[in-house]
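In the design runs reported in the main text, the only information available to the sequence generator was the tokenized backbone. The following block is the verbatim input for one such run; it is reproduced so that readers can re-run the procedure and compare outputs position by position.
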């Protein structure tokens, strides 16, 4: 039976608590007494197991920035975030971490205590990474405190420099003291190295593109952490049964593939612990998610050439644009000839379930899991491919990238699906203008390869909850204002989506529905079921009547909730959110 690490701990409060009130009690007195707990390894393990709940359980639902379009738009994209309604200033999880660190000394075995302190300090760095991404400067708390400690309760925000330096101390402690065995459902040294690789890349590039000094140091730390994980020789790119299925299977596997997956959140039918991916993708209940046209256009041809270099690439019908592309495209969306896992029938995109026509299949398992809250495939938190991408990007931004580095990173990822390698000299000699228009701040001698690494990252990690943070650190939020699009239709007609000679979808003008649908099971009335960019032809346009607004001087950080500013006037609001 799959081991499930997310043990329900009776001593950790489960309520969602916001603001300062959640730090008033030093410990949950009705559940655990520090005088009688924290003395044995089993007690330390039981407590730190509960911290694993800090890992996200719904990462595949949170790509509403621009990789995936839905019926509605996120507040971050429309620009209607407001300090009176936004949340996130919540400290209960940190208090649980610090409560452990304040009491673990009661275990007299120093080696055992160091291991579990390492887990707790990993989660403190993990917690603060999320807070810095969201708010920038935040208060640093390394201990619990009482309701009478007004100095701590109403302290000012500490500088980003102090927070990041403190996170580095914590994560380096975790790296030094955590176990080196491969345990996909536990926090290990390799998990800590992966987190350090991730947050140091974020901080280094955020500082570089936002004009904050010290970016070089964090890129160097990301490089060091990534290389240490690689040098550990514990992980490799999962190849599966062959290049045609390995990428898709990595996410649909019930138990995480330990060759590549460093850490995953486990799910298990015997324990009645499920997630909802199939239902999310195969019903209209979650906004009909669909991959966005710009992402689809980013996939290379199977020979490594650029799809966007083909004349009139933006006017190709679905079947044609899907031919001879990077195989990850067919393993991420329903392409021509798509079949469900363990299925025999060919399925085309269902427009009742996707607003763009590019219907996602990543994480989707066999049809037996289609009901609400039925999925039990593990959800990946850290995997080796991300670390390889982090290393390549950090070195490219630092100006130290070589072709050997690309051979040891990007090539390994592309080899999985039979794609040609990225060649440094070729990328830099002719930067892709399609990508350059998306990331205008990228310049210098490594411009071309940085753009290509960003392409690779977007494609490889789509639906894994990276895109919004990536756009924030690259200072590319203005891209969210563009019109989100879907499949191109040259006009009203009846269409064969998979080239088998059978008609699948009929598009017609109001009042002009054909009497003979030629077997097409889906009908789309223009202006009612679907809107095209030019009325009777063009790409599907998603949410054309919803205004998007991105304010460069404000929107790369969230506002601090106004309730917190009222409680503690010394916090001060983030720039641009004062009104």
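Verbatim output:
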């Amino acid at each position: 039976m799959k081991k499930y690490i997310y043990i329900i701990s009776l001593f950790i409060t489960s309520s969602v608590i916001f603001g300062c009130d959640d730090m008033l009690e030093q410990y949950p007195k009705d559940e655990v007494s520090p005088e009688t707990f924290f003395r044995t390894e089993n007690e330390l393990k039981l407590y730190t197991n509960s911290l694993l709940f800090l890992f996200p359980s719904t990462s595949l639902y949170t790509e509403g920035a621009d990789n995936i379009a839905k019926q509605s738009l996120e507040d971050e994209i429309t620009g209607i975030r407001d300090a009176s309604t936004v949340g996130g200033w919540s400290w209960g999880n940190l208090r649980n971490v610090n409560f452990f660190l304040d009491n673990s000394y009661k275990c007299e075995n120093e080696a055992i205590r160091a291991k579990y302190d390492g887990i707790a300090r990993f989660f403190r760095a993990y917690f603060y990474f999320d807070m810095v991404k969201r708010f920038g400067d935040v208060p640093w708390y390394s201990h619990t405190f009482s309701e009478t400690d007004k100095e701590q309760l109403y302290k000012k925000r500490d500088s980003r420099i102090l927070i990041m330096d403190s996170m580095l101390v914590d994560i380096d402690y975790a790296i030094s003291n955590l176990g080196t065995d491969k345990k996909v459902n536990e926090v290990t040294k390799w998990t800590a190295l992966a987190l350090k690789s991730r947050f140091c890349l974020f901080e280094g590039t955020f500082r570089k593109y936002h004009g904050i000094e010290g970016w070089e140091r964090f890129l160097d730390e990301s490089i060091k952490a990534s290389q240490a994980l690689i040098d550990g020789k514990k992980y490799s790119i999962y190849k599966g049964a062959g290049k045609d299925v390995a990428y898709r299977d990595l996410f649909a596997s019930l138990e995480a593939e330990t060759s590549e997956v460093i850490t995953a959140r486990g799910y298990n039918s015997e324990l009645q612990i499920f997630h909802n991916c199939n239902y999310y993708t195969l019903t209209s209940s979650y906004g009909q998610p669909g991959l966005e046209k710009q992402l689809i256009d980013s996939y290379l041809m199977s020979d490594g050439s650029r799809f966007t270099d083909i004349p009139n690439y933006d006017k190709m019908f679905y079947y044609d644009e899907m031919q001879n592309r990077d195989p990850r495209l067919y393993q991420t969306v329903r392409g021509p000839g798509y079949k469900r896992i363990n299925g025999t029938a060919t399925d085309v995109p269902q427009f009742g379930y996707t607003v763009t026509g590019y219907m996602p299949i990543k994480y989707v398992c066999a049809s037996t899991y289609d009901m609400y809250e039925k999925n039990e495939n593990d959800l990946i938190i850290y995997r080796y491919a991300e670390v390889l991408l982090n290393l390549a990007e950090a070195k490219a931004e630092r100006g130290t990238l070589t072709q050997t580095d690309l051979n040891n990173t990007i090539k390994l990822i592309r080899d999985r699906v039979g794609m040609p390698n990225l060649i440094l000299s070729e990328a830099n000699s002719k930067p892709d203008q399609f990508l350059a228009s998306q990331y205008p701040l990228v310049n210098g001698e490594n411009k071309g390869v940085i753009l290509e690494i960003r392409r690779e990252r977007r494609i490889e990690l789509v639906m894994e909850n990276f895109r919004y943070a990536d756009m924030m650190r690259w200072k590319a939020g203005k891209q969210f204002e563009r019109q989100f699009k879907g499949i191109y239709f040259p006009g009203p007609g009846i269409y064969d989506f998979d080239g088998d000679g059978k008609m699948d979808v009929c598009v017609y003008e109001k009042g002009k529905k054909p009497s003979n649908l030629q077997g097409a099971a889906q009908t789309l009335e223009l202006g009612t079921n679907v809107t095209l960019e030019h009325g009777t032809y063009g790409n599907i346009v998603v949410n054309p009547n919803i205004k998007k607004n991105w304010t460069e001087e404000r929107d790369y950080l969230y506002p601090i909730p106004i309730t917190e500013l009222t409680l503690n006037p010394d916090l001060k609001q983030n720039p641009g959110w004062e009104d």
